[in-house]
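Record filed here:
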Amino acid sequence: MEVFEAVRTVLAVRAYQDKPVPPDAIKRIVEAGRLIASSMNGQPWHFIVVENRETLRQMGAQIRTGPYIAQAPVAVVVAIESSPYGVSDASRAIQSMILTAWSEGIGSNWVGFMGLTWIKSLLGIPDEMDILGIIPFGYPVKSIGQGKKKRKPLAEVVHREQFGQPFK
């Protein structure tokens, strides 16, 4: 899938088929996160690939906004080192992983945002790191309306040269 097409059509997926994600696809997904640019090349991220059903179940049970993690065949926990750029750099990595997965027919959704400290002991993550989020991945249960998004019109959010000047 061409990059803009992936951006145009990607949607949040919260229901996954009971079908494993192939190891080579998982590797491409995390590689997409690893390869993205980072400020001053700091690369303040760590990706923990979780496929253990019980661990996925525990994560899904603990996060109010992401119980569907329990049904995903795989999830990537994104931990960040203490860095002024950690959140922005790792956010770029997450989006890169989401788009790479989507281009291969694998859905995902970002779950949580910081404050997931209980995961540290579950996955052996050092105390000095923060958990930015969890990204479950899997094949969507149903075909979802690719590209049918409710977004503000371009003219409402894009300006030329100065705020309020129309972008044409």
The mean pLDDT is 92. The first strand starts at residue 45 and ends at 50. The two ends are 28 Å apart (CA to CA).
